[in-house]
Amino acid sequence: TDYDFYVQADCGPGDSSVWQGPYSFSTPTCNPSEMCMHYLSGTDSYGDGWNNASVTIQQAGVTVKVFTLTGGSAYSDSVSLCNGASIDLVWAGGSYPSECGFAMTDFTVIP
What we know:
The protein is mostly beta strands and 111 residues long. It has one domain (29-106). Helices cover 0% and strands 50% of the residues. A three-stranded antiparallel beta sheet has the order 6-3-8, with no helix packed on it. Strands 5-4-7 form a three-stranded antiparallel beta sheet, with no helix packed on it. A two-stranded antiparallel sheet has the order 1-2. The two termini are 32 Å apart.
């Protein structure tokens, strides 16, 4: 679940700061003990990054991570996902989608 919140300091009777925010945080879709790490790798055959392409990783309709390759020919990262729950990968093609490669594997199978 995603949350937005605002904060304000109580500076004494009748005195407070201006509201600050919004600040955001998300709670996981399952208990941390039920999560598994997954390895993400992206490649770009031209070597200039994905040109605004991205893969959004969702679980239970919640965006868990947005993966992109901002420059160069390769990038790797990891993400924790709930064990046994379905995963949606949403591809946004960017300018040159034919240059892009993406793989996601169980963390025990690091390429």
